[in-house]
Automatic annotation (TrEMBL):
It comes from the Bacteria. The chain crosses the membrane at residues 312-337. Keywords: Membrane, Signal, Transmembrane, Transmembrane helix. Residues 1-21 form the signal peptide. It comes from Bradyrhizobium ottawaense. This is Uncharacterized protein.
Length: 382
């Protein structure tokens, strides 16, 4: 019976060891992720390391895909990510990325796309986005967008109120940029990037809804309709003054904070990094976390966003699921320790019983032996 009890304890210990070996790595990773959930950089590191362990060819595959899509900036971001994690990238692949970046940044290519963005206000790459930012900085772009959307509003046509609100806010921020000698430039650039992301359909659905609600409060529609009735890009000074009268600065705080965070991402991760952020963000909190990520990771940000998506900014798995892994690991550890305790107690009890039994047998054996001296001194009986 005692052997059976010890055997059951040993079997329980073996089961708990097996379970612990299975769940401990998941529990450890889950605990680390939960601890890093408020630090986007640490959270992204943990998750991308896990992704690379599961797929060693992840970096090389994404570099090839980026080059095929003619996105040299993304390819360069993956090269930087590989360098930071001591992942080897072939010399041939590195050279192809360098050549692609050089071609993208060539003077002729940049000038052509810059002019396109400046004139049309539509951006699909860094050069054209730089053109739209320049156009907005010199108020040309914002006046164009306000006049166009304002006239749609006045005529009862479909109006993109988000673009309208962003352009109106941009005109006010542009004035602040000049007054502060560039101090508000990140906000100015951020407003332009949000506006252009909206135009080309790269603004996430959740962020679009939030920004749309915020933008509606920024513009006084009746005053704006009167302003655009006579507004024109050919009379910028008069038009800007009229539009500013329709701008409610006290309502623009949230929109300006969003633009500031977008500008921070653009400064550290590049304009395309900012556009990638706007595509996956569901609200201003996501953009604020992306700004913190970009400040910590710089050029690696686009690669992290490409691999992890929104998971680079917040927990990819539910906190409940992660907590269950941690709980499972702790439960297996508790079972293992309990099994060790039970095995030790039962083995010790068995040893003590055997020792006590041996001592008792020795005492009984000693009691049965005849006493030598007593026998020698006893009288003989005939």
């Amino acid at each position: 019976m005692r052997r059976l009890r010890i055997g059951l304890a040993l079997a329980g210990m073996a089961v708990c060891v097996t379970a612990l070996a299975q769940v401990a790595p998941h529990g450890r990773d889950a605990f680390a992720i939960l601890a890093a959930q408020d630090d986007p950089a640490a959270l992204a590191d943990l998750q991308v390391n896990s992704a690379m362990r599961n797929n060693p060819a992840l970096v090389a595959g994404n570099i090839e895909a980026a080059l095929t899509a003619e996105d040299a900036d993304l390819a360069a971001s993956f090269v930087e990510l590989a360098r930071d994690r001591n992942i080897a990238v072939s010399d041939d692949l590195s050279k192809r990325v360098t050549d692609a970046v050089t071609e993208t940044n060539s003077t002729s290519h940049f000038a052509k796309r810059f002019a396109t963005g400046l004139v049309t206000g539509n951006a699909d790459d860094v050069a054209s986005l730089s053109g739209t930012v320049a156009g907005d900085l010199f108020v040309f772009g914002d006046i164009r967008d306000v006049v166009r959307e304002g006239k749609h509003l006045a005529m009862g046509e479909d109006t993109d109120r988000l673009v309208l609100g962003l352009a109106a806010a941009g005109l006010a921020v542009t004035a602040a940029t000049y007054v502060s000698i560039g101090g508000a430039a990140p906000v100015r650039a951020g407003l332009t990037m949000v506006k252009d992301a909206r135009k080309v359909g790269r603004l996430g659905e959740g962020l679009t809804e939030w920004a749309g609600r915020s933008a509606r409060e920024v513009v006084d529609a009746p005053v704006l309709q009167q302003a655009v009735a006579t507004g024109s890009v050919l009379r910028p000074s008069e038009t800007v003054s009229a539009i500013r009268a329709a701008f409610r600065a006290e309502k623009a705080g949230a929109l300006v904070r969003l633009a500031k965070d977008v500008g921070r991402v653009g400064e550290k991760a590049g304009m395309r990094g900012a556009l990638d952020t706007l595509r996956i963000a569901e609200g201003p909190k996501d953009v604020a976390r992306a700004a913190r990520l970009a400040e910590a990771k710089g050029g690696q940000t686009r690669a992290l966003l490409k691999i992890l998506g929104r998971g680079a900014l917040l927990l990819a798995a539910g906190a409940f699921n992660l907590s269950m892994w941690v709980f499972g690991a702790l439960l297996a550890l508790f079972g293992f320790l309990s099994s060790i305790k039970a095995t030790t107690e039962r083995a010790t009890e068995s040893w003590l019983r055997r020792k006590k039994a041996r001592r008792l047998r020795k005492q009984l054996a000693a009691a049965r032996l005849p006493q030598g001296p007593a026998l020698a001194g006893a009288p003989a009986h005939g």
